[in-house]
């Protein structure tokens, strides 16, 4: 059973950097043909794909957030981490980590999500 679990602070101040870690169990983040994505959902809005790190370590980002986003991984801990810099209240959202089957483009396993609020 593949499980993903997000962790990180629930409250971040404006202009600071948001950092969230996804811990994966039941599968290796280096297994071929999977991307490991971050997706968020602001209040009363739809899901927004933010970026991903592939099984090989390559990273991909949505253009709107590219300049503020980084994704890294720790293969020894089977974790990957999102960092979003210069946050504003518009970055308030529920953040999800997700495993994606590349070829089928299937978002098959999701973490439960973690609420992050940006406020002073």
Write a brief structural summary.
With 120 residues, the protein is mainly β. The protein is built from no helices and eleven strands. The strands form two sheets. Strands 2, 4, 5, 6, 9, 10 and 11 form a seven-stranded mixed β-sheet that branches.
Keywords:
mainly beta; four-stranded antiparallel sheet; 0% helix; 53% strand; 120 residues; globular; seven-stranded mixed sheet; 11 strands
Percent of residues in β-strands? over 45%
Major beta sheet summary: 7 strands, mixed
- Poorly predicted runs are none
Quaternary organization = single chain
Kindly report the average pLDDT value. 96
Helical stretch tally: 0
State the helicity in percent bands. under 10%
Q: Look at the helices and sheets and give the structural class.
A: mainly beta
- Helix-strand sequence: EEEEEEEEEEE
What is the terminal separation in angstroms?
39 Å
The backbone outline, from C-alpha atoms, is globular
Round the Cα radius of gyration to an integer and report it: 13 Å
Number of strands: 11
């Amino acid at each position: 059973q593949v499980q993903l679990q997000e962790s990180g602070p629930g409250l971040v101040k404006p202009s600071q950097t948001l950092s969230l870690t996804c811990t994966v169990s039941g599968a290796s983040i280096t297994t071929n043909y999977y991307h490991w994505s971050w997706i968020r959902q602001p209040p009363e809005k739809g899901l927004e794909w933010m970026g991903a790190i592939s099984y090989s370590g390559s990273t991909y980002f949505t253009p709107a957030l590219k300049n503020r986003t980084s994704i890294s991984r720790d293969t020894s801990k089977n974790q990957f981490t999102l960092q979003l810099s210069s946050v504003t209240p518009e970055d308030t959202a529920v953040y999800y980590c997700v495993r994606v089957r590349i070829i089928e483009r299937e978002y098959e396993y999701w973490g439960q999500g973690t609420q992050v609020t940006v406020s002073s």
